[in-house]
Amino acid sequence: MNMRMRSLAALAVALGVGFAAGRLGENGSAAAQTDALTALDYHEITQVINRYAYGIDTCANLGYDYANLFTPDGVFIDRNSDAGFAAGGRVLAQGRDALATLVGGGSRGCETKLVWTDWSHLMLNHEITPAPNGATGRIYLVQLGMNGPGSVARHGGYEDVYVRTPEGWRIQSRTHVRNKAWHSEKLRTPDLN
């Protein structure tokens, strides 16, 4: 019996060492694991992006349902419009109050009809990549109604930086980019902006 207990103890130690070695990663340190995202992280980031579409389309909670998806110093950058593209990007809003106002809420009180008021934002093919301080992402933007009722149009995409906060995952920066930014010149079609 004593021999059996020693064998079980040796097996337990070997399993523990094997598990620990597997957790250390290829670089040989626990730090190699710090950039990894869990399935829950991916799900929570995806939920933030899903709520983004509803927030921008509805001006819910005076625009703060949209603004609260960002960090307190979160920023929305335009690299899609002609002016934003020419400038290499221009900040349209930074901070929660400015973000709420950007979508028609805040000081505007959701009473001003905006360019996209009758549109629906559809975001497709979300790509999330672990990064040292959180994650980055990119996603296609398709607009329903942009060119009139019933129309469907590509409208660039978003390049994002996500960080985990005490309130959960949030957008630190979102840049609206042109479709052409992601397509090879040889594959560009006339409808790409």
Describe what you observe in this structure.
This protein has helices at residues 2-24, 39-58, 64-67, 82-86, 96-102; strands spanning 70-79, 90-94, 120-131, 134-144, 152-165, 168-177. By secondary structure, the protein is of the alpha+beta class. The longest helix is centred in the N-terminal third of the chain and has 23 residues, at 2-24.
Task: Lay out the secondary structure.
Blueprint: H1 2-24, H2 39-58, H3 64-67, E1 70-79, H4 82-86, E2 90-94, H5 96-102, E3 120-131, E4 134-144, E5 152-165, E6 168-177
Parallel strand pairs: 1-6
Antiparallel strand pairs: 1-2, 3-4, 4-5, 5-6
CATH class of the largest domain: Alpha Beta
End-to-end C-alpha gap: 76 Å
Percentage of β-strand residues: 25-35%
Strand order of the largest sheet: 2-1-6-5-4-3
Taking pLDDT < 50 over at least 5 consecutive residues as the criterion, the unreliable ranges are 13-33
Tell me how many strands there are: 6
Structural class category: alpha+beta
CATH architecture of the largest domain: Roll
CATH fold annotation of the largest domain: Nuclear Transport Factor 2, Chain: A
Binned, the helix content reads: 25-40%
Query: What's the SSE pattern?
Result: HHHEHEHEEEE
Mean pLDDT value: 83
The number of distinct structural domains comes to: 2
Biggest sheet architecture: 6 strands, mixed
Number of helices: 5
- Based on Cα principal axes, name the global outline: globular
Radius of gyration over alpha carbons?
Answer: 23 Å
